[in-house]
Design goal:
The complex is a heterodimer of chains A (471) and B (100). Chain A is of the alpha/beta class and 471 residues long. In chain A, 46% of the residues lie in helices and 14% in strands. Chain A has helices spanning 2-12, 28-32, 39-49, 60-67, 92-105, 118-130, 149-160, 174-185, 195-216, 231-242, 278-286, 312-326, 332-345, 368-377, 412-426, 434-444, 448-468, and strands spanning 56-58, 77-81, 110-114, 133-141, 164-169, 188-189, 222-226, 249-255, 306-310, 353-356, 381-385, 395-399, 408-410. In chain A, the strands form three sheets. In chain A, strands 1-2-10-7-8-9-13 form a seven-stranded mixed beta sheet, sandwiched between helices. In chain A, strands 5-4-3-6 form a four-stranded parallel beta sheet, with helices on both faces. In chain A, helix 7 links the parallel strand 4 and strand 5 (164-169). The longest helix of chain A has 22 residues, at 195-216. The two termini of chain A are 31 Å apart. Chain B is 15% helix and 36% strand. In chain B, the strands form two sheets. Chain B has a four-stranded antiparallel β-barrel. Chain B has a two-stranded antiparallel sheet with strand order 1-4. In chain B, strand 5 and strand 6 form a beta hairpin. Chain B is elongated and about 70 Å long. Classes of the chains: A alpha/beta (471), B alpha+beta (100). Strand 5 of chain A pairs antiparallel with strand 3 of chain B, so a sheet runs across the interface.
Chain lengths: 471, 100
């Protein structure tokens, strides 16, 4: 344990212990500011490698289609931030750019990251720009050596950028490999969850707010963000606030993969989405510090107003709409929140503004045709119908009509409660102070009263449970 | 005849953990299989056959050893077959927009 802390402190250049305030609380803002970069600094660094300043595009045809199935006066305007225009094809360049720059500044020879997604390619691409070496650890294959096509594409992209790629089978032991590689190489840990990673994403929210302000004279009403580990939500929401867009509703959207176990070899290739799904989204909200760094700077629960789930079939349908109506062939990550946008736009007034804050590149392995071919090969039923009838790992239902696209709201209160209970449980035996309660309130976007209520109920339940168990 | 000679681009295989060395608490389908890894690079040894213990130099110049698996490994992921469940969607919605 102590060795793990040493390796991570050395590999991030951060003494995480300095920010701990109690067994429960830590100083989040102090940790976020510990690397010494202002938003303006970050923007200047990004300019040097062509990251950010991506176009914001209004999807007029899609909005027209949505209005045709909405109640009178409903069906808002939809904008999409074309993050595919970043150097390696996704918003992950923002996430990698500052970390790699920081690693270079601190004198590291290379960077290591664990990513089966766009982030690996972004790290490799930025490492090229700044003259560092990159190692990417990817969970790619099941035990039959069958690779998820989207991840195989990510291997190709990382290798195209000259990274050393470790293609691993399914398993959470990846974290130990990461520690070993960090120790062997002395490279920087370009974890998704270090402060520089989240600071980089702030530029995205900041740009969205300002581009809408410039074009429309006001801030967006709603911003939809595909949610997995929490960095995209956290960084974007912080950026919106920094631009003054404080009244904007922040909505996270994930693909519903409930029922599939993320560490299961047999479930691994029964899914058509490798990120932006509930298998990451829900656990990371309930317990953000489950990561490869002592404290996770991606804390989605602090910023989310709403969390919505969409089905795999709805995202495939939406991908087709974006290509055929708007002439934009893009990958699954952004199209996840775009599917959510179709549902949510139907609830909103015609003149309101909704922003989907990312697109990503697409390619072999990432297309609906690649994924559906693969799904069928792995015994998944694919058919047209009512998307509500889908079962993750068993069936993918492609909607028959646009009005069938809907979101399932995941209860924020339930997530907040689970988070508070989880934190209390990990610090069992420790007496909470008022400062801890305040931290929990901030960290879960709850009122102090609600935090106390949850603490109280979890404390009163425990003796009863003990009695039941005869302890 | 040997499968590969020095400098050839190859892929090595490594078993990182045997099933009994794997983490506790894993789902049975994961716990019952080894934890494996594949890495690509240029063969350092003079010559080698599939299954030999070899050393490679990776893209970033690091030396790694493993069992030789593939020579000149091909990226085999592709665009997939045309899917009848999604092919008609474009025309369906275009028709719908025209009717309105």
């Amino acid at each position: 344990m102590a060795r793990k802390k040493d390796i991570l402190n050395k590999a991030t250049g951060i003494d995480y212990g300095k920010f701990e305030k109690s067994p429960i609380a830590f100083d989040y803002e102090k940790l976020m500011n510990s690397c010494g970069y202002s938003l303006e600094d970050v923007q200047e660094i990004f300019l040097q490698t062509g990251v950010g300043k991506t176009p914001l595009i209004e999807l007029r045809n899609l909005a027209r289609l949505i209005r045709s199935v909405s109640p009178p006066g409903k069906g808002c305007r939809i904008y999409v931030k074309d993050e595919a225009a970043n150097p390696s094809g996704s918003f992950k360049d923002r996430r990698a750019a500052l970390s790699v720059y920081h690693a270079k500044k601190l004198g590291y020879e290379g960077v290591v990251t664990a990513s089966s997604g766009n982030y690996g390619a972004a790290v490799a691409s930025q490492a090229d720009k700044w003259g560092l070496k990159a190692i990417v650890l990817q969970e790619v294959y099941d035990s039959r050596r069958v690779g998820q096509p989207e991840i195989l594409e990510k291997t190709r992209a990382c290798e195209a950028y000259g990274a050393e790629v470790w293609q691993l089978t399914v398993g959470p032991e990846l974290f130990y490999i990461m520690l070993r590689v960090l120790e062997d190489t002395g490279f920087f840990s370009a974890s998704l969850y270090v402060p520089t990673s989240v600071l980089g994403i702030e530029t995205l929210g900041y740009e969205v707010a300002n581009q809408i302000l410039e074009q429309e004279g006001r801030f967006p009403d709603v911003v939809l963000i595909t949610h997995a580990g929490g960095g995209n939500v956290t960084g974007t929401a912080r950026g919106l606030r920094k631009a003054g867009s404080t009244q904007t509703t922040v909505v996270g959207v994930s693909v519903d993969l409930r029922g599939l176990h993320m560490a299961s070899d047999s479930d691994f290739n029964r899914k058509s989405f490798t990120t932006g799904h509930s298998g990451f989204g829900i656990p990371f909200l309930i317990w953000p510090d489950r990561t490869d760094v002592p404290r996770n700077c991606a804390r989605g629960l602090r910023y989310l107003d709403r969390y919505a789930l969409v089905s795999q079939g709805e995202v495939f349908y939406t991908t087709e709409l974006l290509a055929k109506l708007e002439g934009m062939e893009r990958g699954p990550a952004g199209n996840t929140s775009l599917a959510g946008a179709i549902a949510i736009a139907k609830e909103m007034d015609k003149d309101q503004i909704l922003v989907v804050q990312e697109t990503e590149y697409t390619a072999a392995g990432k297309l609906p045709s690649s994924q559906l071919t693969f799904a069928k090969e792995n015994g998944i039923q694919v058919r047209r119908g009512d998307p509500r009838e889908n079962t993750p790992g068993e069936s993918i239902i492609i909607p028959e009509r646009v009005d069938q696209i809907a979101v399932e709201d995941f209860s924020m209160d339930k997530i907040r409660q689970s988070y508070i209970e989880k934190v209390i449980k990990t610090a069992e035996g420790y007496g909470l102070t008022e400062d801890d309660e305040r931290f929990l309130a901030e960290d879960s976007k709850s009122s102090l009263d609600r935090v106390r209520e949850v603490i109280h109920s979890s404390q009163t339940i425990r003796p009863n449970r003990s009695q039941e168990l005869g302890v | 005849m040997t499968d590969a000679k020095r400098g050839d681009f190859i892929q090595v295989h490594k078993v990182i953990l045997e099933p009994d060395q794997r983490m506790e608490g894993l789902p049975p389908s994961t716990k019952s299989v080894p934890y494996e890894c594949w890495i690509k690079g240029f063969l350092i040894d003079e010559k080698a056959n599939k299954g030999d213990k070899v050393r490679i130099e990776t893209f970033i110049g690091r030396e790694i050893s493993g069992t030789m698996d593939l020579v000149n490994p091909v990226y085999e992921h592709n665009f997939g077959a045309p899917q009848r469940e999604i092919l008609p969607i474009g025309n369906e919605v275009k028709r719908q927009l025209k009717e309105k």
